[in-house]
Amino acid sequence: MAQKTVLRKPKGFIDVYKHKPGAEKDRTHYCPGCGHGILHKLIAEALEDYDIVEKTIVISPVGCSVFAYYYFHTGNLQVAHGRAPAVATAVSRANPDSIVISYQGDGDLAAIGGNNILQAANRGENMVVFFVNNAIYGMTGGQMAPTTLEGQKTTTTPYGRDPKTDGYPLQVCEIINQLTAPVFVARTSLHDMPNIRKTRAAVRKGIKNAMDKKGFSFVEVLSMCPSGWKMDAVPAQGWIKENMIPRFPLGTLRDISEDAPAVERPVPEMDPDEVKKILGFEALSDSNLDKNPNAAFKKVALRVAGFGGQGIMSTGIALANVGMEYGYSVSWLPSYGPEMRGGTANCSVKIQADTIGASECTEPNMIIAMNQPSLEKFEKILLPDGVIIYNSTLIDIQPTRRDVKVYSIPITGIADELGDTRFQSMVNVGAFAAVTGMFDPGEIKNLMSSLFAGKPESVIKLNEEAVQRGYNYVKDNFS
Ligand code: SF4
Predict the structure, then answer these.
(1) 56-60/345-352 β-pairing
(2) Of 45, 322, 352, 396, which is most buried by a Cβ count within 10 Å?
């Protein structure tokens, strides 16, 4: 029988989530039963149906949806905690023909970003805000949020939220509805199909308002957080119905968008060259730094990965610092995943002569894998002709890639010989210098007192030794 596709990914989504680390490029990072995925899909479908994927910019701040940019096939900005409405204001005013979406959770929007959302709403900025209310801080492990219900147990209210000490749940829709400027304010839920349909309608209404430049639309969506609530997916749906909806009544609180005139504002004048100059990008772009003309690498996009405590972050910081001292453009980006399912710690490091755009290494040309899960996870995203440095003390398998260069180095063993596993990071720095040719071990040693400022001389000496041992191991075994 011929197969018929009845489900497909809307064009509002990137087809393959290539920015997402790891092997599972076809699914989101959200926990099973989480509401984020449903709301993402409703938004992505609307963007496709309205044919505005290309014109839309999604702003996501901190929270479980911090990685919304993995999924939406739109312009994306990931911004500081609570600041999405402020950034969305700038984006909307500078690009008045764009559709601007601010996607925020309750901890983000109602706590640290409480004033940001009120001011943007009060100005009637051209944007639609999707406010995901699950009554808890999900990403950070289930602490009390501004919308946590009276009596609700969280990790910071283990006996239940007590209004005498913790205040009352913030009803953000009702607060926004006190303001004059907003044109559309609604609260919906994702706990069953009829309510998902109503959410779909509200999502479309908000997006349509943004397309018509009607000003500020606010859609609060009650959403399941089974992990934060410590329950299975199905009971979580019932929990919304029984507990959240009585406190956060559903419905449209305001809809004056039909009669509201389009909001037109003067577009700020801006000379991009002047902005480059102010930010110092011009000098960097023109620089042609080439300290080591014979270096095998001119540009490194590196992922360092392993378990916590293996010197992952300190390897990245040390390399970025050394690179900076050399005059390269550098970036260091730690990755603290929001998923509550464990995994490896990792960081991205970029070192190059010209300006760095995105600091995350989605397509690294080098990985340093300190344990087996990291090797298995990150060798898959390594570019062809890239480099794998792996810790042969703890990894007893071989990389599967045949199109890359492999350096098997007993990183932990070398550090242990020096008396402390913590020297692993500087062994890595030495190995990196030998593999890339970008740094000279002697010059790295000259930087030691600034890298380890305040540390005893004996510790600095041992770290110097660790650099040299890592360097020598590569030179002696792979040259
Ligand atoms: S912690 Fe909660 S909100 Fe975050 S992904 Fe998991 S279920 Fe969703």
Answers:
(1) unpaired
(2) 322
